[in-house]
Structure formats: C-alpha cells, structure tokens
Amino acid sequence: MIEAVAPTAWTYSPVEGHYDEVLDSRGRPRRHWRRLANTMTRLGPQQFARRWQHGRQLIQANGITFNVYGDPLGQERPWPVDPIPLILADHEWETIEAAVLQRAMLFNHLLGDIYGPQRCLSDGGLPPELIFHNPGFLRPCHGLPVPRSVFLHHYAADFGRSPDGQWWVLSDRTQTPSGLGYALENRMVSAQILPEAFRSSHVRPLTRYFHEYRQGLFELTRTKRDSPRVVLLTPGPFNEAYFEHAYLAKYLGYTLVEGADLVVRDERVYLKTLGGLSPVDIILRRQDDSYCDPLSFRGDSVLGVPGLLAAVRAGNVVVANALGTGVLETPALSGFLPGLCESRLSEKLKVPSLASWWCGEPQACRYVLNHLAELVIKPAFPRFGLHPIFAAQLSATDRDDLRRRIEANPSQFVAQEQMALSTAPVLSEQGLEARHLVLRVFAVWSGDGYVVMPGGLTRISTSQDSLVVSLQQGGGSKDTWILTQREEEPLPETARAPVDVTRTPDMPSRVADNMFWLGRYLERVESLARLARVLLPSLSSEADLGGGMSIEAAVELLIGYEYLPDEMSHAPVPEQRRWLERVLRWIVFDTERVNALSWNISQVRRSARSLKERLSSDAWRLLNRLDQEFPSGMISGEAHLLDQLNTLDRAILTLASFSGLMTENMTRSQGWRFLDMGRRLERALQLVELMRHGLAGALTDENAALDMLLQIADSGITYRMRYYTAMQADLVLDLLLVDEANPRSVGFQIQQLAVHLKRLPGQDPSGRLPEEQQHIVKALTAIRLCKTNELSADREELRDFLDSVRGDLFSASTALSSRYLSHLTSTRLLASA
Amino acid sequence: MIYQVRHLTKYSYALPVTTTHSELRLTPRELPWQHLVRSVITVEPHYENMRGFRDYFGNAVRYCSVLTPHHELAITAESIVEVQALNPLMPAATPAWEQVRAALGNHEDPGALQAFEFAAESRYIRWTQQIADYARRSLAPGRPILEAAADLSSRIHRDFRYLPESTDIDTSVEDVFRNQRGVCQDFAHLLIAMLRAHGLAARYVSGYLRSGNIGAEASHAWVSVFVPGHGWVDLDPTNDVLVATDHITLAWGRDYGDVTPVKGITLGGGDHIIEVEVRVDPLAAVPAIADTRRASARRWDR
C-alpha cells in the first residue's frame, strides 16, 4: 500500500540521456508544470497518497477495466492510471495538433484513392506491394459509396519525444483507434484528485471534442433522417477495450451493439429490439473491418453482420471508419508519407514519422541488414500475435535467423529506429519514478474538416529501463493536460438542442436476454446458497443442531436432487456424513459443475459483463463482492465449516442488497422487467424442485423434512407466526405454493410474472393472450385452485401437480425467448464449387 | 461455339434455416472472345431481392437474401454463351519468364502494375520450398514464359491424379502436392502457386467446360498467366490444354475464395447436403428464348 511507505518529501530524478517532461536540463520544473509542482509540494507525498487512494476507489467503483488477452488470472484488470498528468504548453500543442490534422486529411485522401482510382500506384507514389499484398486492403470495399468521401471518421497518432525535445509520430491508427474512453476517464480521475492545480493551470476541457464527434456523424446522414440512429459496434465483452466501448456508447448516447444484434433485410441494417426491428443509419465500428461481414470477408467470423456490405453498397448505412481503412496501418507506409504529402496536399509533412525502412526497397533492405542490431524489426502487415523484434536483444544465432527471414521475404519487414523516449514522473511505492511515455492524440471529422482533441492518452512504460509502452504488457496511463491562455468559447447553441423525453427506449434483444439470464443465475446462486446454508450444520457431530436439522433429512433431500446416490439413505451415519460433506463442498465451491454455486457465480459474471453500461456502479460493486466472496482456494477442502457458513451468509446478504438495489434504484425499464422475470421464473422453478424432492419423495422423518423446507425457502418465521402447531404438510404447502402474500411462494412468483408479461411490448389489442402468457395463466390458475390438503395426502398426485407447473414454466420461458430475445444461432459459411 | 449451360446448386438442411445471405458468381463474363447471349438466375424459395454489381475483379455478382425459413435452397443459373477462337499464341514467341518477373509491378505499365496483384500469396495460394523446387525444373533461364507455364501444366497433368472427392475446399496446396491427387480446383491452385513462387503473375479462373473433357460434370477451374504484350493466357492443367473454345469463363480472381460461384451465410440449418449439377450443351445456333419462369420464383434477366 502506498500510504504505508510514502516518504515525507518528494524526490525525483530523470533518466540520463532522455528528455524529461517536467525538469529542464538544470533540474528546475518547466514553466507549464509549476502550478502542479506547487500543489504537489504543498500536499506532500502523504496527503497526495490519501487523495490517490480516493481516486483508485473511484476507478474501482466505476468498474473501469480493460481485458488482457490470454491472462489466466481472469479477464479484467482495473484500469492502470497514474495520478500525475502529463502537461503540455499550448505552443507545443499547436505543433502536434497541426500534424494530426494534416495526417488525418492525408490519410483520408489516400483511402479515397486506394479504394478508388489508385493513382498513388500509377504515379509511383506508393510501391504496389503496400496495397496489393496488404491483407488490410479489402477488395470488396473498392468502389463502395462513402458519404462525403469521409473514409476516416476518427484517427489517432502515437507521438514520442526524442532527447532533443522534438516530437515524432511513432504510429498511425486508422482502423478503430482506441483509447478515447480511457482518456475521458483519466480526466475524470485527475480533475477529481487535483482540483486546485486543474483549475489554476487552465486546462483545456475535452467536452467540446465529443460534441464535434457527434456532429460529424450526424452530418454524414444529414440528408436522410432528422434523428439518425447510431450504434456502436463492439466485438463484445471479451475484447480488450470492451469497457471503453460501453463507456463511449453511454457518453455519446449511442446504443452499444454486438454483431448478433444487427440484421440485414432488404439491404438495410436493423437493430433487433424488444419492440421489433429498428433501422440503423450509422455504425460506429470498434470491430476490425475484416470481421464485419462474414459473407464478404472472413467466413469464419461469427462476430459480423452477414449482408452488411450489401447495405453499404446500396448506400443505406454509413460505417465509420469506413470498411477497409485498416490498409493504412502498415509501418511500411511512413517512409512514403513525406512524398505523398507533397504530391497530394502540396504541403511539407509537419511532424515526421520515426525513421523507418521498408525492406521491400533493395537499398533500404541493405541498410537494415547492415544495422540490424540497432533496429526494431516489425512485420510490414501487422497481424494478431506478431510482435516487434528488438534485434539488439537477440542472440547471434537468432539474429542470423532473422536476417535470413528478411532476405527470404524482404517486403514483409519494416525496420524502425528505437527512439530514446522522453520521461515523466509516475507515483510508485517509493515515491516518484521516471518512466518513458508515448502520447496518443485523437482527431475526428466534425462535419467540415477534422478537429483534434485537446488532450490525449499518455501511456507509460513498465519500468525505467523499458522503452515498451503497452497496456497489454503491464504499462500504465496518464491524463494529458493541454494548457491555454485563452478562454474557451462556450459550445454553440445547437450543441444543447433539446432532446425529446423518451421513457421507453428500444432495448436490443440481446441486452434483454442477458438481463433475463442475469436474473436467473443470481437466483440460482441464492437458492444454492440457502440450500447449503441450511444443510451445512447437519454435518456437525451433533445429530440435531438446534434447528431440528437432521443428517437423515439432509441426505434424503440431496438424494432427491440426485446429488447423492439412492443407496446413501441406508448407509451408516459416519459414511453419510462424509458424503454429505463432500457434496456440500462442491455444491458451494466447484466451478465446473452446472449445479454448483461457484459455477453459477461465474455465469452471473458472464451475463453481467455485457451489461456493463447498463448497471449502476453500486450494482457492479455488489457483483464484484459476490465474486470475491468465493475465493477459489476454498475448494481445496481446508475451509472450516464455520468459514463456509460465514461465506454463505455473506453471499446471501450481498444478494439481498442487490435485490434491494433492484427494487429501490432501478428504473422500471424493460431491462429491469427482464431481470426480474428471470429471478421470478428461476425462484419458482427452484421452489418447485425443492418441494418435489423435499415433500413428494418418501420421507422417514417428515417433521424434520418440513422444517428444513421452510428454512431453505426462508419461510420458517412466517410459519411459526401463523401456526403454533407442529409441522403439517398441507400448511407448509399452502405457504410455499399457494400463498401469494409470501414473496417466497411459487404463487407469488407466477403472479409477478403475469404482471410483467402484460407490460411487454407487442400486446395483442384484441386481448388474445400470447403463448407465454397462456402458460403462466394456466399455472397460476392451477395453483390458485389446488387443494393443499389433498395434495399433501397423496404424494403421487403432488408430484404430478408440481411436474405440470414446472412444465408450464418451461414452456412460458421458451415462448418468451422465441418472442422477444435474440436467437443466438450461429451463422456459418457455405460455399460450392 | 454456342453453348447452353445449366448449373444447379441445391442445399438441403437437416434443420430449418431462418436466413440465407448469398453472393452468386454465376453470370459468365463478357469478353473479347466470349459473348453472353442470355443469363437467368433463379432462386427458390422466394428471395427478397437480387442486386447485381461488379466486384473488384470485374466479375458479375448477384447478391440475394432468403429471409423465410427454408429446408432447401436451390439456385439455378442458365446461360447461353458464344465463345470464339482466338488466334493461337506461339509459346516460343513469348518473353523470357525472368523478363516478365522483372516487369511486374512497374507503375508505368498499367497491365504489369495490375498483374502484380496476382503475384503474391493469397488465402488459398501458399507454397513451400518443395513446390518452388518442383516448378524450377520447368523454368530454365531465358525460357519463354508460356512455354514454361505449359510445361508445368503438362507435368501436373502427368504427375498428379485427377480423383473426384479426394479433396475439399480447404485442402491446402501443400497437401495436394504431397498426396499428388486432387480435382480441377486443386490443380489450378497448384499451378498458380508454382508460378507465383517464382515471382510470376497467375490468376484463378472459374467456369464451365464442354462435355467430354475432365471435370465437365461440375463447374471447372483453370489458370491464367500474365504474358506482357499479349495479356492473360489461359491454361487448363486438368486437361493439359491451352484454353480455346471448350471453356466458358465465369469469373476470375486470386484464387477460389475470390470467385466462389455460390457463397452464402446461413442462420441455423444443422447438417446439410449440397448437390451440384452442371450441363453444358453445344447449340447449333442461338435459340429462340423459351420462358423458363416458375410460378413461385421471381427471376432476373440480363
């Protein structure tokens, strides 16, 4: 923990031979850093650490995460942000801004040419390999209509600073530049923990940029509809930047969708919603283009929207960035940019790219082979899993091997100089430490040209010695403050155009589906936790542990559930106990079995993950807590009985808090309705199961069994308040099956389901009940009319009755799914000779 | 020669398919030596719309989607095509293969620049050192390109066995080379890989073949090689011939992936069976056009 070791005064020493962003050559803070330096001096390391502690809580509370591919520890890591921003003075920023604008224009122009007349090839401006042999050149996109010739809607460039203080462009992002959402989050954090410095330094705000962002998209479909529907297409929760996709969608007010949410009909793209198909005008794409349409590109991709290209070809949908823009993400391009810039824009390239050599040119290749040890070798056409090679770090044999690979296929390689990147301080456990940094700057088309976001995402290296800046490999990030002398003009009036009240926005069917299953899994967790909590005490050496719980009753119930084999009912008590213990342990902790609690918690997490943007931070916190309550170590078997009980108690309380949040804090949207329907349906099913196994079977000790049922169903107190008698099966049945005033009865769940179903969109005005309602009404009526004394007298009949209720519930669930929820059938490619 | 072609592709599914989106490359190309008299494509069941466009390589494509649940999808393409003989090219009179290699990609020569697209690896065209070595024996220094290509084509015809159903779409060139058997598509890919391995430009041609030749009972595939000064010259390694009037050209591209005659994405369906039937009948003259319309299907005429 930082506060434990925080020193009492700041010390900071830059790295020899690198430009330091804060201290000048004489070791004094540069002018534009002075206000922040003053604030930090005033606060001192300890108070600063306390503030940072608060900042980190903010990050956790907001669930800001990113995914690391191939990380065995799990999918998500908290977003690594450093509390000290990078600060740039305005004169310096002007250089960067102008360079980004120029590049955005140049790249957009090049894309229009590459996917059009290809003059850059016929006039020799670009070697044909860079297009024709480039897997990012998507031939099906050639000649597609692109409104207002805006191929590149958003663009980002990574900048690095060399020891002489010059900025260089390290790489260009033209496909789906990421980081914007994280930049926004970093700003929120830094402004919150350093409010004085933020205000007094005159930091340029980011909000205007997002206004321009929306405006630019709007302009692309201006002629079509007054309020175009924009969706943000994400590859889904397993993508490294899913959090950002969800965050940006929410911030910009667009619907977050996955490929399966969209469907193409009549060469138009539609969003599948609960209310039916809703037309889509713009797709803000965060998915690589070659995955966007399995019909035209990769047939093996299940992420895409079959037929999307047909809709683009017909001019019915705009995709931003246009499909095919990844063609420019080759490091081989940079050597040709100065020439292209002069011939296309008649300007000099403002900020050069890092020196690089494309080995497809014989002269460049010779240079590279002669200077291999000083260079970083990259694939000319980036592919997932191909990493830069630092030739200096290779053994002599490996280097020779690399040399041979380059000689065999020179056009596939690019060599770049390794830049001595500048440094800035980061907060570490020892105080301040210098780290190397790369600044990502963003530009967007605003309707009449490009604008640059006054800020950016600063990424930092993992250590002082490392020049690798990669979040995937454990680096961090910083907010970026651009200082200004001028007052920012207020946003134009149109930026605040009134928005109509919408109470029931269309919800993608997939979201409703996830809500429904989140509800079901949560309830499954709860019922398993309750079951285990009631059964656990029967393991103690006392045959009867206070609550009338006997080991026989527990064994019989678990035999009913088929957790234990039939013959266990006649086994000697010590063996029963051993088995019971084993079974209870895996009911709670096994992550592999579908009827175990931990497995269901992992499913809760899965469903919740793709609902990220729709759950409040409190709800997230509770789900996180639930996850943490079941440390995987406990499966090993050392956990003490009491520890297990405590764990279960905590889990049940966490679930109760979640229910409370649902009741008190969630808007009664369709999403809430599906979440609640999932819970009700699952609880009804679980209660039916419980009664089938606890009542309908052959019971040795009925009293103990009934008591156990009441405890598991959390209705023991109600029973004792009502009846001062011993346990009576018909009374227990009434309370758990029929009584609609008991929120733990089957009747209550089904009655609630009936209410929900009536409120779903698409009701028949003639009053005819759709199928799912028919099943529910049938089950509800059967329960209301049943005679509990007869059922309790004839256990065969009770079993049949419960089976029929269960059948109706299953049918209702199936009908509901096929009517409202997306059919997540997988697509596949057919090809014929 | 005038041909009438009927090409039926039928998918039968175990489970209903709710949606099919497909791209059809079933319309023969209009070429200096090939005239398309008529082409009708019918899709059953009822399709939503059928839009025509030309792809990057200039092939005619029909896009259509079937949005009603179906257990079967039948696509019938019927064409009448007139093919003329070109003046035969003397292989010995073509430029040396090294000269061709050097010219490829030259931005001052539009033909050589475009041909360069067909000189690299592509999805179905990958080669190994063994494949390159096999080809080298036909590529003596200074040998005229067409002579070399024809020699390679003959060697493939001689050394490899034509064996229907011995391979499928995903069989790699490397496997075909190792097992020494395959079908027309494999031999086309193999010849292309051998030419490209030595820096030459070769493209994949899909089409039909007059009955009596090997591979005429299905759609056919062969190779086109770039010969500066003459353009593209077609060779058929499956039948070991220079293409004349027995071949009808549908489409060309870098490999099979660019010109798949029927390509579709389905939703649902389970297991499926494909039936393909191709009939190529020479006609004495361009016939009066009969109405082949079916009541349940809309049709598209060229």
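Residues 291-302 of chain B have pLDDT under 50 and may be disordered.
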